[in-house]
Amino acid sequence: MDTRSYRILLASIASIALVALIMQATRYNGAATTYTLPGGTPSYSLFLPLVAHEALLIATPTATHTPTHTPAATLTDTPTSTRTDTPTATRTPNYTPTHTPAATLTDTPTSTRTRTPTATHTRTRTPTHTPTATPIIVDPGQIPCADLTNLELPDTTITVSEIVWPGWQSPGPYEQVQIDRIICRVTGRIAPSINFELWLPLTTGDKPWNGRFNGVGNGGLAGYIRYSRMLAALKNGYATAGTDTGHQADATDGRWMVGHPELLVDFSYRAIHEMTLDAQAVILAYYGQGPQYSYFTGCSGGGQQALAEAQRYPADYDGLVAGAPANYRTHSWPGEIWPPYVTHRSAENVIPAGKLSTIYQGALAACDANDGLVDGVISDPLHCRFDPAVLLCQGQDGADCLTAGEVDSVRLIYAGLNDPTTGEQFWPGLEPGSEVGWIGWGALLPEPFDLPLAYFKYLLFAENSGWDWKSFNFTDPQDFAILTDADARYGPILNAINPDLSTFQALGGKLIMYHGWADQQVAPRNSINYYNSVVSTMGSEAETQEFLRLYMVPGMMHCGSGTGPPLFDTLAAVRQWVEQGIAPAEMVSLDGARLLCLYPQVARYTGDGSTNDTKDFACVKP
Fold first, then answer.
1. Is the peptide bond before 334 cis (omega within 30 degrees of 0)?
2. N or C terminus of the chain with fewer C-beta within 10 Å?
3. What is the DSSP code (8-state) at residue 56?
4. Run of H or E including 359
5. Secondary structure of 298-365 in the HEC alphabet?
6. Phi and psi (nearest 5°) for 187?
7. Entry pTM
8. Active site residues
9. pLDDT band at residue 594 using 50, 70 and 90 as cut-offs
């Protein structure tokens, strides 16, 4: 060996020793792991730190990162399965207006976007060490989180893509939550004005991604992303997304409706569909694979969104949960102003707030024991025979009785809103057992609840800035014609009442509906009416229950609370139905104490022991 070669050898040995000392000092160990982007050379080298209480793969660029792939060319927009987006049939005569509208809004066609993933992902890793802790892979798939802003999606701009850490708080002003894990957070905007957000859990660590997607619904008039519902999905391991549906406002503020029919379309169905397609495309890009299954959960306005998905975009989701669905808005919003109307007709018709408990106790006395158990809950209001006249004061007015005017108001609230010309029911009434909730939703307040009032102020009477709700007469045929005309004009956009779910059924979709019997806002019988319309359209209840099941929850108010049993895990039930083929029958409350029966069955107490043991109850047909 010549002198020059000998010196080079010594220098190499010294360099190797120096690197070893540095690595020991910094407690890093292991070989580089390279990630190769499609069509390009390795662009990141990842080293595994073995610092105590920390095991995070750290990205160290080996060169300036210039992606050589084109996401738009590799990600087109069609479901990863062969499911197709086929519009279902039109509304049946049960929901067809009998009048001719003065004008008709154009119902925007459903999206023609297709989604066929073609990108491939190469990842090579040959570790030469054994880590002392499970590594957390921040960027598990083909495109790192920070680079998702470069993803090209139809009509969409990805505005933020970042790794956020436990303790990160979602932006306000309407809902603020803190996350408890590392996620890749992605925000985007779909033209013209739909904002959405997607949270992507990591694939490793103690809170990994479960391989599934959970889209979450809104409530009321939407207007902001429901971070609390996203957080619940995230805690269960789902990648999850939500949207403001195209406008930014409080959920009871309807001023955005004025002069913007396109926003009604986005609010009613387009935003959820477009959010879903974009979320599934980003999931594919980030993880290198699409979701194994996709689910959607929502209540109230979110329940309407779930039904709109089943009816308009049956290929979007494998399973849907629709709670207390506000799916017949052109009927429900007038129907929600009916109780304030009947109680504000005159001073004699106003029901004092203190008497709501009296009415509630009267309803319990008449119907609570019908299920074999006196427990402060009416299990089956359909078979409750309560006439508030039994509470009529026999002498002087008092807190424990009702005047004739008050009795009349209670009867009309139970009866619901009828068309004064035809006598047909326009919207069902509230049920015995719901009375304690009436005050919070406008029946006894000086003004009705803002949400249904917005329909009148910003759609029906938008040109009349001084319109007063008390000037509208629900019993006058001329005034009522305004409602039937609006039903024909706005119903095709705002409502989700199409009972033909044959495409959703053919694609293997599963749908769970639930509704609280004590709902003080959306009349519970609306869900029964829709369910019965599906049964009629599909041919039989047995065939319908192969893909759609309805549960009526005793004592539950709007989307929760009330005197009934705690909530039931409907997402777990629909997931088991989709993935294992096990259709839910009875469900058990989260506290394990009560049964929730498949409609039309009701729970009856059959035991003589504990009333908090499900073995002492049975589901029977009334």
1. no
2. N
3. B
4. helix 356-367
5. EECHHHHHHHHHHHHCCCCCCEEEEECCCCCHHHHHHHHHHHHHHHCCCHHHCCCHHHHHHHHHHHHH
6. -120, 150
7. 0.80
8. 300, 519, 558
9. confident
